[in-house]
Amino acid sequence: MSQPAKTTGPLTTAGMAIGIGMGGFVDGIVFHQILQIHNMLSARIATDTLVGAKVNMVWDGIFHAAVWMATAIGITLLWKAIKRPDVLLSGTALFGSILFGFGLFNLVEGLIDHHVLNIHHVYERLGQSVWDYVFLASGVALMLTGWLMIRDVRSRSAA
Amino acid sequence: MKIAAPLIPLALVFPAAPAWACTLCHSRTAEEVRAAIFGADFLGNVAALALPVPVLVAAVLAARKYLL
């Protein structure tokens, strides 16, 4: 009797959620906290006063809480996925989907926050700049890389 | 309940934590921060922060169905 075809769907969904969460953490930790080139509402509330910096810090915290939730949801989905017998447990597919989620975060957050709502920009001192477009391009590149990795796994498992 | 029971003592940490009595809670700076956060644009800022969430959820569901 032949084995039923294995799926990567639950694994890659978990990976995407983890990637969105971890992509958010990269943004928050590297850009908001270490480099301090922008904060969550830095285009609306200037960060060059103590009060302004602290207000932005609160909104940064809410953002970090949200990406923590995305990561936790991803870990929960991953736990459920690995217990399913019909799921193809591929490290490449998982890593690819994490990259895809990371890129999706950059693309969606970049489009909405940097271009539509203008609540902050990548390099706030310049306002909207080439760095906002680099951020979007990094999202597309990460998504493409992740998609190619997953596609490779799926084509090898189908063969 | 099996999982929750061992976590109950953790609740005791919160009233005991020094952070509960944050150093700026009664300062003028803290009052200005609170006023700025909960000002007229509070709901607008919440909405701005929340907007990517449904878009990301929809994108993940679409990617799972059509792409990955």
Structural topology:
The complex is a heterodimer of chains A (159) and B (68).
Chain A: H1 9-34, H2 50-82, H3 91-116, H4 130-158
Helix pairs in contact in A: 1-2, 1-3, 3-4
Chain B: H1 13-16, H2 28-37, H3 42-50, H4 52-66
User: Low-confidence stretches of chain A at least 5 residues in length (pLDDT < 50)?
Assistant: none
- Stretches of chain B where pLDDT is under 50 for at least 5 consecutive residues are none
Percentage of β-strand residues of chain A: under 5%
What structural class results from the helix and strand content of chain B?
Answer: mainly alpha
The major β-sheet of chain A equals:
none
Would you list the SSEs of chain A in sequence order as H and E?
HHHH
Mean pLDDT of chain A: 95
Overall pLDDT confidence of chain B? 83
Q: How do the SSEs of chain B run, as a string of H and E?
A: HHHH
The overall number of domains of chain B is 1
Strand fraction of chain B equals: under 5%
What's the count of strands of chain B? Answer: 0
- By DSSP (H or I, 4+ residues per run), the number of helices of chain A equals 4
Instruction: Name the structural class of chain A.
Output: mainly alpha
Helical content of chain A, roughly? over 70%
Oligomer designation: heterodimer
* Terminus-to-terminus distance of chain B: 37 Å
Cα(first) to Cα(last) distance of chain A is 18 Å
Indicate how many domains the architecture of chain A comprises.
1
Main sheet makeup of chain B? none
Keywords (chain B): Membrane, Signal, Transmembrane, Transmembrane helix
Signal peptide (chain B): 1-21
Transmembrane segments (chain B): 37-63
Organism (chain A): Sphingomonas aerophila
Molecular structure report:
Chain A: This is Putative membrane protein. Chain A: It comes from Sphingomonas aerophila. Chain A: The chain crosses the membrane at residues 61-80, 87-108, 130-150. Chain A: Keywords: Membrane, Transmembrane, Transmembrane helix. The complex is a heterodimer of chains A (159) and B (68). Chain A is an all-alpha fold and 159 residues long. Chain A has one domain (9-158). Chain A has four helices and no strands. Chain A has helices spanning 9-34, 50-82, 91-116, 130-158. The longest helix of chain A has 33 residues, at 50-82. Chain A starts with 8 loop residues before the first helix and ends with a helix. The mean pLDDT of chain A is 95. Chain B is mainly alpha-helical and 68 residues long. Chain B has one domain (5-66). Helices cover 56% and strands 0% of the residues of chain B. Chain B contains four helices and no strands. Chain B has helices spanning 13-16, 28-37, 42-50, 52-66. Chain B starts with 12 loop residues before the first helix and ends with a helix. The mean pLDDT of chain B is 83. Classes of the chains: A mainly alpha (159), B mainly alpha (68). The interface between A and B is medium-sized, with 35 and 21 residues.
